[in-house]
Write a structure and sequence with these properties.
Helix content of chain A: 40-55%
Distance between the termini of chain A: 60 Å
Number of helices of chain A: 15
Shape of chain A: globular
Number of strands of chain A: 16
Number of domains of chain A: 2
Oligomer: homodimer
CATH class of the largest domain in chain A: Alpha Beta
Radius of gyration of chain A: 24 Å
CATH architecture of the largest domain in chain A: 3-Layer(aba) Sandwich
Amino acid sequence: MSNEDIEKKVREMARDAKRGSRKLASCSTETKNRILYKIADELIAQKKFIAAENNKDLSAGREKGLSSAMLDRLELNDKVIESMVTGLREIAALPDPVGEIDDMKRRPSGILVGRMRIPLGVVGMIYESRPNVTVDAAALCLKSGNATILRGGSEAIYSNLALAGIMQQVLAEEKIDPAVIQVIPFTDRHGVNVLLTLEEDIDLIIPRGGEGLIRFVSQNSRIPVLKHYKGVCHCYIDSDADIDMGVPIVMNSKTQRPGVCNALEGLLVHKDIAPSFLPVVARELFKAGVEMRGCAASRALVPEIKEANDEDWGSEFLELILAVKVVEDMDEAIEYIGEYGSQHTEIIITNSYANSQRFLREVDASAVMVNAATRFNDGGQFGLGAEIGISTTKLHAYGPMGLEELTSRKFIVYGEGEIRA
Amino acid sequence: MSNEDIEKKVREMARDAKRGSRKLASCSTETKNRILYKIADELIAQKKFIAAENNKDLSAGREKGLSSAMLDRLELNDKVIESMVTGLREIAALPDPVGEIDDMKRRPSGILVGRMRIPLGVVGMIYESRPNVTVDAAALCLKSGNATILRGGSEAIYSNLALAGIMQQVLAEEKIDPAVIQVIPFTDRHGVNVLLTLEEDIDLIIPRGGEGLIRFVSQNSRIPVLKHYKGVCHCYIDSDADIDMGVPIVMNSKTQRPGVCNALEGLLVHKDIAPSFLPVVARELFKAGVEMRGCAASRALVPEIKEANDEDWGSEFLELILAVKVVEDMDEAIEYIGEYGSQHTEIIITNSYANSQRFLREVDASAVMVNAATRFNDGGQFGLGAEIGISTTKLHAYGPMGLEELTSRKFIVYGEGEIRA
């Protein structure tokens, strides 16, 4: 396809999505839920078709020499389909944020002013490999009244188109414009370039994938982008922390799923508790196969800790490695987090009331926690139901983004003939 | 100044602002309010200094041949200073949004999750002429815990620097880093270019001014921008509207201040009520000197209405001109608004319960009103206290932006040793 053809097609898709989104915005909750349940049923009914299309991607991937980890993520096996089906039904069961009205107040002029929750319009999703994102993201957007344009990894194109086809079929049956869920039907990178310029028709871009993808998207987009680059999460062990509480929290945060963004990457230990805490936690960490890289003070207490170099501070290891630093006091810990954290998840283990309050107030991260594992920073765990991504910038949303974060609020006014004096 | 010097200086300003914003974020409400009251007092005390600096701008403006309207807007006379002082005191009296916690819920895991309101960080304001914006914007940002970098019109540079100097003097006296309120001290356009790229240190850009300025900013900014291009507001007169209510609302919306963004620009009248409504409203409008430009149907009813051309539909006149169209029904009105509206303010005059609800739900604008004048779309009228601008896009804020819109929310978690299963 020529660049002009690509541009023409993507523009057309965006325009169609915008048109469809207008009607979808006032679609009843009942209809939206029925569509979600039907899509779930169809995914099960059309398992064989999905597998066949997915196989095209898998064979192409094998030929291209994709790693077995990548092929794994690409595979739409029964378990993955099961999880998409569960996800769809869970999203259907969530309350619909659209139309909610709050902050209704009578003003001195006599008018009654409130705010009504409304969809954003059209959301562009740009993501890598896992084709299940196609269904998860489209379902969250649909439930919140938004149209979606999906652009998955080129290695998953057949799988993504198959899933979109099933969803569009259900939409058409329910007399909803199928343009509200579209997958860009070609893999040329130019499609993304065009998509990112269509600010008239697309309201939000959410990139999900590696740092390279996210940087590319945010540097080239004329449309607002919600993203997080990385999760460099820290745990600060305060001087009077409960060691029996701190050790399991550190272990859980570091080892439960080391490859995810809310895994622990840095441990800061108050100097007064370091002699009693560090040897205990180190024994457990070593037992779990974690490599510790620390400052001189930590190595003086636990000689098995390797010497950290400058790059270890603030590094997102995503594996069984943990940076360790003994700090003078909480000021130093907060300053360190300000410098090396990624505004994702920061936790304190403490028994001091004053320090817990100060940490919650002063640390700048999308989630700040006292005496709980970093792993809780997650839409499901926080009660959002499901998440479409995590934002580590503060505009519009900060932290896990659920249905509400896919909406905005307009002002509504009930008057009885008021005019402005 | 060379481009390199400009770049160096603006980068330094942004870095300083970011550093200052970290401390300001946890500054007490009491301190922030004391600063605001003190600035108000200083503006009065230093009236002569302000007048002298303002005079430099005024003479330069006269020499450059600025229009008398522009010179008017530039002037910091007693009345304008009075209004800045009142504004400062009003902002001091508003509740501080920072630190507010809501949505606190116990989750099945045992953790207690809530959301704490926090400042955005550093706000870049880019605006034209009126130097009072310098104080208004800085005060709103300060109260919401944000640092501001201000870049006003080049014709107001002495006035803006004088006002910033006074504010910085008060900040220093209160031991707050003066870098939290800074005016770019030169007028070279390159300063704006640099500012718009500093996404690491600046969290939000708010442009205020003509459409040219706003387009330039939003097309060149790597930082999120909150803006509105224009206000093309409509009033739809439903078939069973109360004529005695509709006429004053149209008059107030169109004529009270025709030059502002929430003034009425288009009137849509249901065909059934047009014969009784149009002649009455036209008489009043003509009396007030309003020129009406209408469709054939409207001209058949009121021959004095001029023939509208294609450009009149959706035009932001900002003067005593009103586009008039007779519509078949509410569907046509809603469709027309979708095509020609600017997502600013849309109103319906009706006595139909069903139509009022449908209009509120289906019309996409930052403020949708029933039986009240468009002129109410304003931060003060809506109870936000004061506004830093109006957003006509849905990301982060939609409509007038007050203190709350200058904040975000982070998740906070109170745990008692919970780990993730």
